[in-house]
Amino acid sequence: MNVFIAGGTSGIGYSLAQYYLSKGYCVGICGRDLTKTPENSSKNLKIFQADVCDINSIFSAVNDFLQNKDLDIFINCAGSYAEDVAGNISYEEAEEMLQTNILGTVNCFEVARKAMKGQNKGNIAVIASVSGIMDYENSSLYTKTKRSVIQIADAYRRALKPFGISVTTIAPGYVDTLKLRQLNDNDLSKKPFLTDLETATVTISDAIEKRKKLIIFPAKMKWMMKSLSILPSSLLNIIMFRKAKWMKND
Known about the structure:
250 residues, Rossmann fold
């Protein structure tokens, strides 16, 4: 089995890479910054420098990895985050979220689609966010981009189903990664229903194996967000603004 993971050099992506390596699969990972990738001596792991915002670099990395072999699983774990509900974000932060979370998602689907063309099989998965299931006027730019990821995945799922290619959308809550800790000064006390990385990895890999359409976890976060989403938009705006202020310690 050949597995390629975009954004696989750290966090959830790298944990998934380790999981598939443990099963004896050949794994390719890519990222913009390879210096943060832990050392790994596995002969089945290939590491590439590539940016999901640059479709040619992703094409090149996948082609170099496959060497004319089939691509069984492609996972896009690349993402960008900046909070803009309780404060302003820079143009550069907004641009990076839009580019990485939306354009990067389309680029990865296109690369995976073309690699799997003619195979009549293959699994594509993308990491969205549980926040993306909510739709209200003043939701954050991050939430809107992740909602876009879910919609893009839905479109590709419909288009690729006749060709035997499945699409799985992963919408996790808070996962205990190094990046999350860095964003929060190592204080995760205000992150409800936190999921450890090992549990998240097992949940995601199981969803891909079972070719599930959409997986939202953990269950408590899923039902909390679904409950909030039925509230009037005006009330939800107030609640989410106060939540963001609280999480920023303001």
